[in-house]
Design a protein that fits this description.
The complex is a heterodimer of chains A (456) and B (400). Chain A has 17 helices and no strands. Chain A has 456 residues and is mostly helical. Chain A has two domains: 141 residues, no CATH class; 214 residues, no CATH class. Helix content of chain A is 68%, strand content 0%. By secondary structure, chain B is an all-alpha fold. Chain B contains 16 helices and no strands. Chain B is globular, with a radius of gyration of 21 Å. The chains are: A mainly alpha (456), B mainly alpha (400). At the A-B interface, helix 2, helix 3, helix 4, helix 5 and helix 16 of A face helix 4, helix 6, helix 7, helix 9 and helix 14 of B.
């Protein structure tokens, strides 16, 4: 067995173990799981032909692993938390100023919040919802055959982290609210990016990010039970992953009119069943219509359903006589599963107590249905000058929005890193010097020790 | 199943590994057996200090510091070691002198030289606050300096950078163990004097916070692997300071089987292997580095050395993890969230730096064949001895 093959096999094994570990609801298991996935990417990158670029490209994966290790360490070090205060509900105004009774005081609440932030950080970063990792779904992974598919695995890992560790991050004050904003931004940017990318494989990776962000919001706001959220996510994002695999297998999901239509319907149904409870839960929380929140969510949902329906176009069959293809059968099964799983998950949610108010249940259907409105005949109702450039203009607008936001985030991150470096610069001077400086330093410390009590 | 690890085993392992590593030193040629025996005899007291740190009083602590300096100063032709010896002389000498001054002031104020009796006398509040508080701050100084927590962390990195691999671990670990014992003896019975306990707790909290944050910041900005090992050792000293800050009257690591001796033993073992490993790693240049010879030709041996480095950093599933956790739990139990935050930050940085160092050592293979010349066998044997002993420590500490 060659060294390259060994590394690839080691990576594949590590990634499989890593994903399996993410299903365990313990922070240490999640940390080990993400560490294994980071190791897998590193091992694959070392075996790639462009290894230097790939190793550098995926080195950020250690950050979410470290964040989860921190959460795991805090879980081991901190005593059990006191019972949580009552929650204000999804997107409710948190009680920032509240009188806390002496027996309610928890001196370690800052550290519990840090633990929650660490879990959230890991989940968001894996879902491309943090500035430092935002562009990764645009890039291909380090394995030659499955390269374009691999980055789509990371948002899945991010969702699994947030789902299985929800007991940690959803109870800390303000963390859910921050997560909601970050996830909405991630979903909006992901769908914009999916719209601007011309290759369908790249768009599918971004749509997987979009679906994972919506599903994480379902978990964070506790709109449906965790298991139902998982099934809804599995139908939507899992469907994208299967579609992406089929796409890499000679566009197997778009061969023939029947299969193409089935995939179109499956993608739309899965996306709609994922978005619908979220739109109901956020837009009609506490039986009151919240137009701003509803519209903020509805816009990306409409665009995503539009993409699911219009970008899945049949590819021309090059063979004169079609042959039996295992990939095609697998694609068919994947499409049927995707189609059925979403409604089944909604049924499960309803069975577990999820209720949609009227007219919220109907209104929440509108954004996905808007995406299903048939495209008007080319140029109908439009003057000739607006026909061609309209789509191009929208795409350019989406691209400029995405680039502006990522540019701003990159600059902000760079500024913060520079600030940290500047603050750490004195440490560099402190740990090297000559003997005389050390003696002077000791004399100074001696004087300080004498003066310190005077500052009581 | 190992219930507890007898102290003789890690002691013999550290000394054995030191002798093995001495085989790698080309400058020892011509010394022969008497030279080896002299080094071994000089290292023995230092190893004994790490095996039983609580037996070290202030006078023995000073002797340990003097022996460490003497070992470094012995070879006058070695510029690096001579410089380290000079630096340690200034630092240890000044710190010990200041602490003895503080001890003497406390003895004058209390009318007795026995620490446990001094607190009872001082609790009568017959002496001005400035006198006993200043004296106590000075008296604790030597412990903090010997422990090597920032801002006194420079000497550990200097020793690992400038001295030979068989000397550096014990020259660092023994004074650190002596420093921990110094604080234990100076603070014994202080819970009988609440004002003093509060003052010492505040002072130690400040020292621990500076040591943890300063050590973490230094670790993140360093480039040389051996200096990083020295700073990781300084973070171990910072852990001791944090444990004292949580409860000045309680010996650190009482939660771990073996207590302070277990910490010192782990420190000596981990420093021996990690210090040796650092000699085979390349200096971080920022560019993409090819794999180092040890990791390319002897990955199993490299993994053993890496285990020691990770344990020093407190990585999960290593014995070092138990020490970090013990301090974290004590800080949580005594309600020190700020200090616990500093411990978490320092742990995160040290774990990240250690794993980053190992990833860099594996490097990106450039397709060229491995170098013909490998790493000599004594290094492999030293890694194996230390890693086996560390694994036994982890097994004996694992909760059942």
């Amino acid at each position: 067995m060659t060294s390259t093959l060994r590394k690839r096999l080691a990576g594949t094994f590590a990634s499989a173990v890593g994903v399996a570990l993410l299903a365990i609801p313990r922070p240490a298991a999640a940390a080990l799981g993400v560490e294994a996935i980071a190791f897998a990417f590193w091992a694959w990158a070392r075996a790639a032909t462009d290894r230097r670029e790939q190793v550098a490209r995926w080195s950020w994966l250690r950050r979410p692993a470290l964040a989860l290790w921190l959460a795991a360490a805090l879980a081991l070090a901190l005593p059990p938390a006191p019972p949580p205060a009552t929650s204000p509900g999804p997107l409710g105004v948190p009680q920032l100023v509240r009188t806390i009774a002496p027996d309610e005081r928890d001196p370690l609440r800052t550290l519990r919040a840090l633990q929650a932030v660490a879990v959230l950080w890991a989940g968001l970063e894996l879902m491309a919802a943090m500035p430092l990792s935002r562009p990764f779904p645009d890039l291909t992974g380090p394995l030659p055959a499955a390269g374009p598919w691999l980055p789509a695995m990371l948002p899945a890992a991010g969702f699994l982290v947030l789902w299985r560790q929800q007991a940690i991050w959803t109870q800390a004050p303000l963390v859910r609210e921050v997560a909601g904003i970050a996830l909405w931004l991630a979903a909006a940017l992901a769908v914009l990016r999916a719209f601007t990318r011309r290759p369908w494989t790249a768009s599918l990776r971004w749509l997987a990010v979009f679906d994972s962000a919506l599903a994480a919001m379902l978990v964070g706001f506790r709109i449906v039970p965790g298991e139902a959220a998982f099934l809804l996510w599995f139908a939507a994002a899992g469907g994208r992953l299967v579609a992406l695999a089929a796409e890499l297998h000679g566009a197997a999901g778009r061969r023939g009119p029947g299969l193409t239509r089935l995939w179109r319907l499956a993608g739309w149904t899965a996306g709609a069943t994922l978005a619908w409870p979220l739109l109901v839960g956020v837009g009609f929380a506490d039986r009151a219509f919240r137009p701003v929140e509803f519209l903020l969510l509805a816009a990306p949902v409409t665009l995503a359903s539009l993409l699911s329906l219009r970008r899945v176009v049949e590819v021309p069959e090059r063979r004169a006589e079609p042959r039996f293809d295992v990939g095609r059968v697998a694609g068919l099964l994947g499409a049927v599963t995707t189609l059925l799983l979403g409604p089944a998950a909604l049924l499960l949610a309803w069975w577990a107590g999820f209720e949609a108010s009227f007219p919220g249940a109907i209104v929440a259907l509108l954004p996905p249905l808007l995406g299903a409105v048939p495209r008007p005949p080319a140029g109908a109702g439009l003057p000739p000058v607006l026909r061609g450039p309209a789509a191009t203009g929208a795409r350019e607008f989406a691209q400029s929005v995405f680039r502006s936001v990522t540019w701003f985030e990159a600059r902000l991150s760079a500024a913060l890193a520079a600030l940290l470096r500047a603050m750490g610069a004195p440490a560099r001077d402190l740990h090297s010097g000559d003997a005389q400086e050390y003696l002077l330093f000791m004399a100074g410390v001696g004087v300080l020790a004498l003066l310190l009590p005077l500052f009581r | 199943m190992i219930a507890t690890l007898p102290p003789a085993i890690p002691l013999a392992s550290v000394l054995g590994a030191a002798l093995l590593l001495r085989q790698l030193d080309r400058r020892r040629e011509g010394e022969g057996l008497p030279g080896a025996a002299l080094v071994w005899i000089s290292l023995l007291p230092l190893a004994l200090v790490t095996a039983a740190p609580m037996s070290v009083g202030p006078a023995r602590g000073a002797l340990v510091a003097a022996l460490a300096v003497a070992l470094l100063a012995r070879d006058r032709q070695d510029v690096g070691q001579s410089e380290c010896a000079l630096k340690l002389t200034w630092v240890f000498g000044a710190a010990l002198a200041l602490s003895w001054a503080g001890d003497s002031l406390l003895a004058i104020a209390a009318g007795t030289a026995v620490p446990a009796e001094q607190w009872n006398v001082l609790s009568l509040q017959l002496d001005p606050y400035g006198l006993w508080a200043g004296a106590l701050a000075l008296a604790l100084l030597a412990g903090a300096v010997l422990l090597g927590g920032a801002p006194f962390h420079f000497w550990l990195a200097d020793v690992f950078h400038g001295s030979r691999p068989h000397l550096a671990p014990l020259v660092v670990a023994a004074p650190q163990a002596a420093g921990a014992a110094w604080l234990a003896q100076r603070l014994a019975g202080i819970d009988g004097f609440p004002d003093g306990e509060a003052f010492a707790g505040g002072l130690l909290s400040l020292a621990a916070a500076v040591a943890l944050v300063g050590g973490a910041a230094t670790l993140a900005t360093q480039r040389r692997p051996e200096r990083r090992v020295g700073t990781l050792a300084s973070l171990q000293g910072a852990l001791v300071l944090a444990a004292y800050a949580a409860d000045p009257g309680l010996t650190p690591f009482a939660e771990v089987r073996g207590g302070l001796a277990a910490w010192a033993t782990h420190l000596a073992l981990a420093l021996t292997a990690a210090g040796a490993l650092a000699r085979f790693l390349s200096v971080e240049s920022g560019a993409d580095d090819p794999p180092v010879v040890l990791f390319r030709r002897h990955p199993a041996s490299a993994a053993l050395g890496a285990f020691a480095l990770l344990s020093l950093a407190g990585a999960p599933f290593t014995p070092g993890m138990f020490l970090w956790l013990a301090v974290g739990r004590r800080l949580a139990a005594t309600g020190h969230p700020g200090l616990l935050l500093a411990v978490a930050l320092a742990w995160l940085v040290s774990f990240s730096v250690a794993t980053g160092e190992l990833r860099r050592a594996f490097g990106s293979p450039d397709g060229r064949p491995a170098p013909a010349r490998g790493v000599p066998w004594p290094a492999h044997a030293a890694f194996a001895v230390c890693a086996a002993c560390l694994a036994a420590l982890a097994w004996s500490w694992w909760p059942r």
